[in-house]
Amino acid sequence: MDPAADDLSAKALAIHRRLCALYGCPIPYFHSLDPLSELVSSLLSHRTRNAESGRAFKALRARYPDWAALIDAPTPEVEATIAGVTWPELKAPRLQAILRAVRERHGALSLDFLGGLDVPAARAWLEAIPGIGPKTSAAVLSFSTLRMPALPVDSHHHRVAQRTGLIGPRVEVGPSHAILRAQLPPGWSAQALYDNHEVLMLHGQRCCFHRAPACGRCPLLDLCPTGLARRGRDAAAAARPAALTAS
């Protein structure tokens, strides 16, 4: 047994329970795409606001009758169709290359077969394709109609985990997937893992902001070394003028 790992698991569960009470678990899935379509959606969403990536996804759906047609389309046309996302000039050829790789490796343009694999094997299959990393593979398995127990970690989720000390300050988003998943019970359902991702993401969006986090109203403050340190600095700063006046 590793006492430090046990302490982090206990903290992860305490954070999960408090945020679920705040944001209301179970959280409904935000859409129900087949896994190949979820792959396209996830690739579009990288470093892009949900509204913009959603519009780009709908534009692709409207322009092409199926994903095979997207593969065969002129790349500049695809780029123009997804112009609202970040780096469309990179995402257009990458989308085509990844979809082409799926078809070549599987023999069909479908990812439904991943439902017959366990999560590690399904993630390994996806991540063997250049351009698919841990976040995308977990999103495909968790968010799509496969509803598999995989834990995605986005930038908001990662920020909350880092500030609360669940992961170290130098752990990047990619490696954080395995660390954060290992802190949660191995038998957790797909819904429970989805809830965990969603509540940490929501907390990052609504309270634990990138700049000027709202530590004063955070229900995790007593579990958060970053927030406690910030509160201590604020208290010290507030006390200094009074001390100067008294002297």
From TrEMBL:
Ranges for domain HhH-GPD: 44-206
SMART domains recorded: ENDO3c
Keyword set, alphabetical order: 4Fe-4S, DNA damage, DNA repair, Glycosidase, Hydrolase, Iron, Iron-sulfur, Lyase, Metal-binding
Gene Ontology molecular function: lyase activity
Pfam families listed in its UniProt record: HHH, HhH-GPD
InterPro entries: DNA_glycosylase, HhH-GPD_domain, HhH_base_excis_C, HhH_motif
Family label: Belongs to the Nth/MutY family.
Protein name: Ultraviolet N-glycosylase/AP lyase
Organism from which the protein derives: Methylobacterium isbiliense
